[in-house]
Prior knowledge:
Elements: E1 5-8, E2 13-16, H1 22-40, H2 52-64, E3 69-70, H3 74-84, H4 90-104, E4 112-114, E5 120-122, H5 131-154, H6 165-169, H7 171-180, H8 192-200, H9 205-221, E6 236-239, H10 241-247, H11 253-268, E7 272-276, H12 277-292, H13 299-303, H14 308-315, H15 319-327, H16 329-335, E8 339-341, H17 345-352, H18 355-361, H19 367-384, E9 397-401, H20 407-412, E10 423-425, H21 426-436, H22 438-443, H23 446-464, H24 469-483, H25 489-500, H26 507-516, H27 518-637, H28 642-653, H29 656-682, H30 684-693
Parallel strand pairs: 6-7, 6-9, 7-8, 9-10
Antiparallel strand pairs: 1-2, 3-5, 4-5
Helix pairs in contact: 1-5, 1-9, 2-3, 5-27, 8-23, 9-23, 10-11, 10-12, 11-21, 12-15, 17-19, 18-19, 21-23, 24-26, 25-27, 26-27, 27-29
Amino acid sequence: MGSFFVVNKGCCRLELVNYFDLKKTDRILAYSLLAHVYNSSTLMTDLLDVFVPIVKRAISILNREGQFSGKNISEIEAIVSQLYDIEIPLPVLKKILLKIAKEVNTEDVIHFQLYQDGSFAINNYVFAQFDDFIEKKAFEIQELERIFIQFCKLNNITREEYGSIFTFIELNKLTLGKYLKGSVKTNNHDYTIEARFVEYFKSIATVYELIRNIYLGSIISSYIEYEPEKIKVEVELVFDTNYIISLIDLNTPESTKTCSKLLDVAKSLGFKTNVLIDTIEEASNLLHKKAENFDKTFLQKKVNPEDIYNACDRRKLSKVDIDRIADNLEDTLSSKGIIVIPDTTKYRNLGKFSDEYIALKKIRYNDIAALHDATAIQYVKSKRGDKKIKDFEKVNCWFVNNSISDNYQSVDYAKGKDSLPITIKVDDLLNILWLSNPNVSMNIHNSELVDIGITTLISCTLNENLPKASIIKELDDNIQKYAKDNLTDKDVYRVATRIANKRVNNIEQLNLLAQKDSEEFVRRLETMSLAQKEEEEEEKKKMDELLKGLVKKIDNLDRVKSSHERQSKEAQDKLQEMSKEIEEQKQKRLIEKNKIRKELREEWVKTEVKKWRSKSWRELFFCILVIVLIVLCIFYNCQWNVSKFISKLDELSNNIILKWTVPIIITIVIFLVVRNLINKYRNQSNVKAFKDMLQIPDNLKHLDKLDD
């Protein structure tokens, strides 16, 4: 089957024909973008900031397409949904838009305006920050799906037997729905091949990093569907048997890490961590039974990595070690801060007559196990009270399991979907706590959260589709009885791998064959071992070729991008040099202009000072002229006779009024006029004050920048 994809730079949308629908592609691209923003942000205040870029792009695209206003923000929500296949509730979108407006608007320019009635206006808003990133991710997503299809072909899986690898990656988001939105999305598809694909590529950094980011983005996208309220509730966690087994490292290392991490987070949040005495007894009995059959098994620990025998093989534990762990279980849990609830009689009696017990007896391996679970459910119900709780943050008690199946969930929903489940899986609880509580993100790094989630998703999927444990045990017994001397451990391991990969159709018939014809049974196992060996070698060869092709394509894409970036940088450098040169020329012109203006300005100031001083000179000349005219008038009246003039002056000086008035007037004139004139020459502060008061003409002012 071929594929075809087109990347449109205008909207950065990817089209994949025949592989998976366009909407899902948009959503996967959005997941990658959300993860990228989250991983690269350093100033993020809350998870809502992660969604800001995708809304910015939506606004930018609206503006680019000629829309400059809208009657309601639902128009922006529609374009976000169209671009990313993510629905942002309008109240949440409003918060994001207010963040954007605060960030992009300045005092001079309003790029985005949100009004109280919900309408909005856009003004020359451009946001293309992640266009190149999305284009590259579109290519990588297309290649990942192509490799998945090739992987399926190598495993002889037909098109009808598999879906999209991305549907599998976002499965965990769907399971969170029953806790965050109160809804359950069921999907009966067998995702064994998808789980095997992701497990295989965990060791290939280039591919696995893409898978990790898609998973992280899918979890982050759940945040907009869940706005946690800050309600202070004392939370109690009641641990199930499978959680306890994982916590004491008798499951996979990943499960142990996950359960330990939850215990640390619970303590940091002040949660109560308890376990029923019934759970202690069930776990102890399970371990003693495993110890009893310790030397009678081989296949089980190879087929099921979650099995206790597998952990014993990994940790080099003996049957004596298992018995010792079982005997000291209560003390071990107490040392970890888990409190044992000793009296459960009341809840056990309620459990015996409960609907949950009836339902559990049909799906658990024995009635005792069913009663244990029913007892725990009754305990949690009593802690929650009679009220039906629909909001996660209001739940005060959970029954926490590390189960590989959804049996608990089916029991939870046996009587309706009007309240949250009683039980919750470890990874789901960690995811929601990480989303809702900033303190948890300090204890769980996002990479750690992703690895926990993906590992759990893989193990749950693979183990859920394994044959029943009783059938595997019967085959194990038959191998020990009829084929132990004819098969090597490697042969048995290959048979186990073939069973785990679901390439053995009917184990029951194989067990019947062992009873009827032991020699044929051995030959059949040898044939299976040989087939598995050949297929593994062939698969490895083809996968190596496939990976080389992928790495080559990604390298080519990176080289093209690097070349483009290098050319762009060179062009920018040249442009910067030209801009610098132009700026230098402008500065030179500015300096020259300012120099000329300074000279003209100084000349103009000198002229104004001269005018200012000349006014005082005119006042002095006027005073002198008045005195001279008075003297001439007196001289004229004396008929120009000097003797008479002198006599007249003596006469006037004897006049008491004139004797005092004239000197005073002369003194005032000389003091005011002459002093003012002297100050305009000798008093520099006075001269400076005059210059400062001058209104410099615009054509003589200093230039801060060149005129256009």
